[in-house]
Every structure is written in structure tokens, then in C-alpha cells.
Amino acid sequence: MSDRTTNSFTLRIAGGRVIDPASGSDEIRDLWVRDGVLIDPPGGEPNATIDAVGLVVCPGFVEPHAVAPTAGVNERFARQALAGGYTRVAAFGTARQARDFNGPCPKLLRIGPLTVPGTRRLAELGDAAEAGAVAFGDGPEPHGDSELLRRGLLYAKMLNRRVFDLPRDAELSEGGVAAEGPVAAQLGLFGVSAASERVAVRRGIELAHAIELADPSGRRLHFTALSDGGAAMIVSDYLNETLLDPAPISAAVTATHLLCTAAALEGFDPAGRVDPPFRDDRDREFLIHLAGEGRRTPEYPPAIACLTAGHRPDPALLDPVDLLAAPPGYEAFEIAFAAANTALGEEKLPRLIELLTTGPADVLDRQTPSLAPGERADLAVLDVAGEWTCDPATLAVPVARTPLAGRTLRGRVAHTVLGGRVVFERGRFPDLPHADAAAG
Amino acid sequence: MVGLADLNGDEITELLDRAVEFRRLADERALPSPLAGATVGNLFFENSTRTRNSFRLAAKRLGAETVEFTEVGSSVAKGETVADTVRTIEALGVDLMVIRHGSPGVPHRLREFVTSGLLNAGDGTHEHPTQALIDLLSLRDAFSQEGTGESLAGKTVTVVGDILHSRVARSNIHGLRALGARVLVCGPSTLLPRQLPGAEFFTDLDAALAQSDAVNLLRVQFERQRGAFFPSPAEYYRLFGMTQTRLTRSGRDPWVLAPGPINRGIELSSEVADGPRSLILKQVANGVFIRMACLATLMEARR
Q1: In chain A, what residues touch B193 (CB-CB under 8 Å)?
Q2: Chain A contact for B196, CB < 8 A?
Q3: What is the CATH number of the domain that holds B68?
Q4: Which residues pair with B201 in a beta bridge?
Q5: Bridge-partner residues for A17, per DSSP?
Q6: Residues B124 and B140 grouped into a single domain
Q7: ipTM
Q8: Nearest-CA distance from B157 to chain A in Å?
Q9: Are residues B62 and B117 in the same domain?
Q10: I need a labelling partner for A269 at 20 to 30 A (CA). Which of A13, A137, A300, A407 fits?
Q11: Cβ–Cβ of A317/B113 closer than 8 Å?
């Protein structure tokens, strides 16, 4: 129980492997939290202890660009994020907490719309920036107009914000539900060619490069999801060669694209429908290689700056048999770490933690997550070695679909600590009327 | 019975033999009623008159009751999923369901949600198994009639036209391959999905014809195409339309199939459609017997 005399509460996270990408430290030690803030070991007895022996402790994950529920962030969305180890979530759409929900919620950041839907006009980016938008983008529905993107980049630059763009050529991807290839051909599904993504990536690079060349100031354009190895190669080659520092572009990959291929659509499973589409093993392996690589040299920015869960709330009415009616994407927060950890393997764990913490914070131009004393105690405690079979019905927040159903995954989030409170613990959400109960 | 991809050559042959048997019994006015007391639901989520009538007739001739359901457009838009709609109809006491839907895979997915037997009457651009069985039977009859044996093994069949959007093409490729035939597909390069397994690709119709024992002329499905995949119907006819001159020039005298409705002057000339090598009306006649064979086989599997 808390110390009533000082109203102070201490939590000890004992014996874990503590990985802090901000400082580069990776060692077995205790972490101490007092009143929601990391502190130097104070000695004495804590009010509560998490036994982290055999576990990994790191900063809470940062989601760079989820899609929020239309009516506002609800308890389901918040719990899914917390179960996935996320303590900060940037989202397209209404990244505001709905009024009727007071439970624990990751810190929310809003990505404002870049354009007015259905028009060739920029949204009111200045007003949105003033209201707190950290970046601009049209999320899963990019407008596809090159000149509008150019103007958006210029205008966002004036506001010192980045543009988040899903690289997809509007005409080349029209009607597409799967990656072009044998699976799509056999199932009778319209294919999206690799060229669709490559054209959009090249377009974005040229636009951002030209703008930065005229007036260098920083990174301008972030690609929210790459699926094609060739498109990733274009990004990597550009970053390797450009003389602009910092480079004007960055890119993300979704965690499940490191594990799934177009085969996820076999049997017409709507869970296999994602945007960008799952491609083949060569693409997947190249994305794993680039994501795991990080910086080749101090000057070379990593080709894959961060991972995204690719989380999209499911619609209330989801038809389990009609693949074309199913919107792409799925509720992905809870399985993102396991998917990426399974794909990247044990030796890449420190890099994976960067991809989930400092990488996305950097893309969002937010403060770097750190485990230094004085920082807010937003933490993820990970069981990185345990194997489990993914069953969408038995997740902490059961979901209707996931492309990983039935797959054996390695690692999962054991505890999530938000502002010093344990808000997720071994598959359950503790009742949290008071901080005391949470930590106990 | 949701796609020919799931059937092997023996299973396909059994269905064709059964259709032939029903045809003989119908000629003798001695059709049995293996579906007496059963109810067949005709669920057409996509417009169709011919296929629907063919299934209804097949079910009635075998003694079944039919329940008709037509719902064009997305059920979800109306606040109900396809899965729920189909379960509701099943609850009426339906034993077999014939499903046509605009989305690929709907019949496959429905297997998890219903217990009645499912027959795919066309799912988007994926499969149309009964049409392919009709084509296979019509070819078998024709080859048998000309004395080259009824087997399709070793025969070469060219499927011509819009392969990309065609469920008939996909089912034909599976069926023909399962029976040992060689399959060529030919059409404008914009409508040839090169990654489709099981077929050889041609853009020169004359070159394909020179190797063919039969051709299957797909209808140009203007309604499924987004924008123009070829410049004009007139140019399509010049490059891919079947004319008597072209048939004669090939030196092969191939049989001509065309799953209706046909567009005269686009896929083929009237002369070919009504000519001696045309199997078009035979296909229509075989339609009911193939569907009877499928319904009866499916009903037996349930008993």
C-alpha cells in the first residue's frame, strides 16, 4: 500500500534485462519508479514489485500512425494498444479520447488530414497544427494527386510538420485487393502491382528532395508502409546517396508484413486483406533485412525508420464471407510485437526496440523515449522467448480477424506500465480505480 | 462443390457421366426424383436469368422444392452480412444452396457458416464450376461424335478473350487440366493475367488456333472492366473475333464453344455461331443436366 504519510508510491521492476535505446544501455538491473517517474534506486522497500527476471524491460512502444475509431478513441482501442505495449499512439482521424471512457489510455497524438476529402484542396493545416496535430496525412485513403502532395509538403514545411503518405499510385492500385501475383490470379482478385508502390515512392522522393534542396530544413515526407522489396530498395538507395542531411524522407513497415505473404489470402480469408497488400517471401525477407539493419554508418539513416502495428479498428458490421466488402486492415496492436519479434529473431531485439520506441518518436518529432531518471515511467515488460499460438478469440482483447491466426509466435508483452501504473499484466487489465490497486 | 480447383479428374468424370445418364433418362421420360422432399435455395446476390432458370429447372425435374432469393448489391449496406442472410435462408429448411455472388470466395467462406450443401453458381471473377462442366461435357460429346474418343486427354483447348475478369476461364483451366487437356489462353495482353497457373499464353489468335482442337470464346464482360482494356469492340473483333475465314485458315477445324450470352460481331461472327462446328446450343441443352448431376451428387453426399 502506498505510503500515506508522504502520499508517495514506489514500484520496483526487479532483475530484468533493461534495454534503453536512447542511452544505448543493455544490462540486467532494477528500475525504480516513484509517483509515475523513473528514479535512481532509493534503497528501502518498494510498495510493489514486478519480478522481471528473464524478461526484457524497455520504454513503452510508440505507434507512429494508427487509424483511430471515427467516434474517438474508445476503451477497446486503448486496451488493445496497452496490451500491445504501446504507451504513446499517434493516429489518423479523431485521435481524441471519447467522452464516455475514463480508463487508462496511451498518450494520444493526432495526425491531421492533409486534404479535404473528395476535393483537391488542402485541409486547414495551420489551424490543425495550432490545435495540436503533430503531422498531416490522409491515412489509408491518400488522395493520389501529385501537385496536391507537393503543395501539402510545402505548406506543412512552413508549419514544421511532416506529411505521412501511404505510397500507392491511385490509378495503378484502383480496385486492387491483393498483391499482383499467382495468388491473386488464381483467386480472381484484382492485383496491385509492385509498380504502384514504386511509382509513388519515387514521386515522393523527388518532390521532397526538390523542396529540401531549395530550402533545407529537415525531414519532410514519411512513407507510412512499404510492402514491396523494390520500393524499399529505392528508399534505401536514396538514403545512401543523398547529400541532404537530414534526409527529407523516412519510411515505416507494418509488423505483420515481416511475417505474412499473399498466401494469407488463400481460402479468401478477409484477414489477409491489408493495404498495402502482403507480397511474396522475397519482399518479406528484404523488408526483414532492412528493418533489422538500422544504420550502416553514422551518416546513413536507417531505411526503415520505425515499425507500425498497422492498426485499424474493425467496422461494427464485418462480413466474414465477403472479401471485397471487407475493408483492408485489422486490429493489430496486440500482436505487433510478437509478429516483429518472431520475424526479426532474438539477436535483433535491441534494434526491434528502437523500431518500436525511438524510431517512431523521431518520425513524429516527439521527445525520445528514455529510461533515464526523471522520465515518466511508460514502460513495456516483454517475455521475448515464450512461444504461443495466435488465436484471435483468446487475445486479451479478442478480435474478429488476424492474418496470424494459428501461427506460432515468439514473445509477447507481459506488462505495460503507464505513468508508473501497471495497466496491463499477463493478459489482463487490472482494475484501476486507484494507482495503489494498480501497482499492487 | 464450390470450385473445380477442389475436384480431381475422376470426380469431374463422374459428374459428367451422371449428367449423360440424366440426359438419357430425360429422353426416355424416365427421370428419377432423387431430390423428392428436399428444398433447394437459389441465392442470387448478382443478376442472372439463364443460370438461375437452369438451376431451378434442374432442381424441379429432380423433385425438389425451390426457394428463390435475389438481393443485388451489398447486404452489408443494408445492415446485414451475407453470412447472416444465408443463415436466415438456411433456417427455412433448405437442404442445398445454389449461390451466386459478386465477391470471389463467398461460397468457400460460407462453408464455415452453414451446414447445407453449397453449389457455386459463380463467385465474382473466381470460379463458375457448373459452366466449365457444361463446356467439358459439350467437348466430350463433340470429340466422341467425331470418333476421336471421348477423352479430353491430349487435346488442346484455347480459351479466348477476357481471361482477367473471367470466372469461366479459371474453372475451365482447372477442369481441362484435371482431365489431361492442354490449355492455351489467348486475348489482349491487358486481359491476360500472366501469373495464372496451368495455362500457356498467346496474344496471336491464329498461332493458338493452329494448335487447337477446340476454342472457348469468352463473352467480353464490359460490366466487370474498370475503364478500357482494349481500344474498341471493332478492333477486338479484328484481332480476337472468331470468323469462318480464321477457322478455315487454321487448318484444324476446331470445335467452337461460347458460354452465353454471346455478342455477335465481337467475340464471333454469326456464321461461326450458327455454323457446323458451333456447340453453343448444345452447351445450353447440357446446362440443365450438369446442374442436375451436381445437385443429385451433393444431395447424396449429405445423406
Answers
A1: 184-185, 191
A2: yes
A3: 3.40.50.1370
A4: B185
A5: A28, A56
A6: no
A7: 0.90
A8: 19
A9: yes
A10: A137
A11: no
